[in-house]
Amino acid sequence: MGYELIEIVAAAIMLIYLWLEYKASIWLWPVGVVIPLFYIYIYFVNKFYADMGINIYYLVASAYGWFRWWKSEAALKQKSLRSGETAVLGVAIRYTPKTYWPKLLAVFCVLFALIAWVLIRFTDSPVPLGDAFTTVLSIVAMWMLAQKYIEQWWFWLIVNAVSATLYFWKGMTPTAVTYVVYSIVPVFGYRQWQKMMTSAMTANRYSR
Questions:
Q1: How far apart are CA 131 and CA 51, in angstroms?
Q2: Which InterPro entries does the UniProt entry name for this protein (predicted)?
């Protein structure tokens, strides 16, 4: 399989992943396990070393997210069987607690400084600061997705917009175009999750 075909296939799988994320489907996680296998190679070829490294993190995070969502769904199903009510998947979607924001900011700053230093000092990355920025923000966003925090959509919007710019500059056209699409999806994804969260809260209120 040639490089361009690999990039196109990876982009297509990412679109499937986004659709599943939009629907808050647990199946986004197994797809999320497959995607890094493509992008580790793609980013290595283009010298985006931090992005390459984060895909190893994505493998682990996808396994964690899959387990966490599966455990949450299993608990909801057991509860519904006991109560006779229908389990609502969206019940787990929620806003990020206010007390978490200072911690997330601190994690972002520390990781950004560390990864940027490593890229500048030890690699030939053409855009070490941009690479570090998208990598660290992706780490935070992926963790938020696993927790089903709705604000993760805005983090992905920033990551995708910056990434699209970097990839166009690098000549990674199929990936860049895909990331332009990714930059639009979070707007609709946020609204969809908000509707699901509201519906779940309403259903949960009336089931008591």
A1: 7
A2: NMN_transpt_PnuC
